[in-house]
Amino acid sequence: MYAKEVEIVNPTGLHARPASQLVKRAERYKSNLQIIKGERIVNPKSIFNILAAGMGKGLTITVCAEGEDEKEAVEDLCTFISELKE
Q1: Cα–Cα distance, 40 to 67 (Å, whole number)
Q2: What does the pLDDT look like over 43-64, one tens digit per residue?
Q3: Residues 6 or more apart from 79 whose CB is under 8 A from it?
Q4: Which of 4, 15, 25, 37 does the annotation list as catalytic?
Q5: What CATH superfamily is the domain 2-83?
Q6: Is 18 helix (H, G, I), strand (E, B) or coil?
Q7: What CDD domains is this protein classified in (predicted)?
Q8: How far apart are CA 54 and CA 5, in angstroms?
Q9: pTM of the model
Q10: For all residues of the chain together, what is the average pLDDT?
């Protein structure tokens, strides 16, 4: 398993449009992916789970993956989240 923390810097957090973009990126990977927000575990391949988690600006989350492309998946998703500034 590979995991990394990232802070959400987008002023509006992971709302509908960035959440949709995140899902499209996550779906590229074969690994089992998770986003951990406190006690909550979110599937980043599900737009509904991302939106329901209410991840706003300034929140630090952990992106985890387990599988053949785990490191690449985590690094890509973390880069996307940390550079998202709509």
Answers
A1: 21
A2: 999 999 999 999 999 999 999 9
A3: none
A4: 15
A5: HPr-like (3.30.1340.10)
A6: helix
A7: PTS-HPr_like
A8: 17
A9: 0.94
A10: 96
Structure tokens at 61: 């989350």
In whole angstroms, how far apart are CA 12 and each of 19, 30, 36, 64, 66? 11, 29, 19, 23, 29
**Stretch 25-39: mean pLDDT:** 97
What pLDDT is stored for residue 67 in this prediction?
97
Active site residue 3: no
Residue type for position 5? E
Q: Pick the closest to residue 41 from 68, 56, 60, 61 (CA basis).
A: 61
d(CA 78, CA 85): 13
Reading the block at residue 76, the tokens are: 């890509």
CA distances from 79 to 19, 25, 39, 85, 86 (A): 14, 11, 23, 12, 15
How far, in Å, CA of 67 to CA of 53, rounded? 24
